[in-house]
Amino acid sequence: MIEVDTKPANAGDGYVLEDQIGHLLRRAHQRASSIFQEIMTEGLTPPQFAALVKIRDFGTVSQNRLGRSVAMDPATSQGVTQRLLAKNLIQRRDDPNDRRRALLSLSPEGEELVKRLIPLGKQISAETLEPLKPEEQKQFLALLAKIA
Amino acid sequence: MIEVDTKPANAGDGYVLEDQIGHLLRRAHQRASSIFQEIMTEGLTPPQFAALVKIRDFGTVSQNRLGRSVAMDPATSQGVTQRLLAKNLIQRRDDPNDRRRALLSLSPEGEELVKRLIPLGKQISAETLEPLKPEEQKQFLALLAKIA
DNA sequence: TCTAATCCGTTAGCATGCTAACGATAAGAG
DNA sequence: CTCTTATCGTTAGCATGCTAACGGATTAGA
What we know:
- The structure is a homodimer.
- By secondary structure, chain A is mainly alpha-helical.
- Chain A contains six helices and three strands; from the N terminus they run H-H-E-H-H-E-E-H-H.
- In chain A, strand 2 and strand 3 form a beta hairpin.
- In chain A, helix 2 (46-58) packs across helix 4 (74-86).
- The longest helix of chain A has 22 residues, at 108-129.
């Protein structure tokens, strides 16, 4: 993770970068990704893990619907599914009922891997929230969900 | 912004993707960036605007120090400063006291632009926080700062 | 039914954001 | 003063994440 070094300073117009919601969200997201990468194995990235978990929840999904469910646009879904395919964690077949669609599902290896990595996912979430007291964690998640 | 479409569903192991802090931070950050892009002009990105504001606060900064102050690693600082240079918003000169360093400062155009865009920055922050009541906004920012 | 609108996946292009490696320079230890 | 260590900026390589454009398939509506 990058160490930030400033004390907030500004030019007297009341715009302190360090207090802006966008900047704080960017930094919090960076920190969460950094913790994820420290704990997660198999070289999985946050979007890749999210996609695996969601495919497991669906059983079978089209590529675009998967993307919508994890907030990835079609172009990004494309890249993520390609990499998961290359790692043999998912399978892909044409939808016989709609020739535009590609249906995704976990491969046996993917199935096994997700099961094994869920505890790491929980550990990552806990560590990311660690600076807050349990009561604060609940408040924060509730407010964050309203803003997401 | 991407429309998310799922009702949370899971495989009974208590890991609901939609409740995870990392996933929520990623989505909130996406939403904030989307609002930024709608309101900001000149094709400026969030990191570019952050860099401009921070250079203004410093007056003159080395490239790496600028990066640390806005949480960008040196490789990313490199790209952002290149693009700001290409837009003639900043100036760059060698540090006579340390030949490793490059000193950055706003160009006259950059100076004028930052002054003009600060109100948009404030508007972006307000709109991003809009889903929360004023009291919740304060709580949220305080907790977010602890996690960032 | 035929046509217009929509949806699906793909690609190209660009901007973060990271790691790893590098040469050049500066600072510190002995 | 020399040798080691740290810092600065740069580059290459990879993974998100976006827009814009596209060709093909499906759906909706006139």
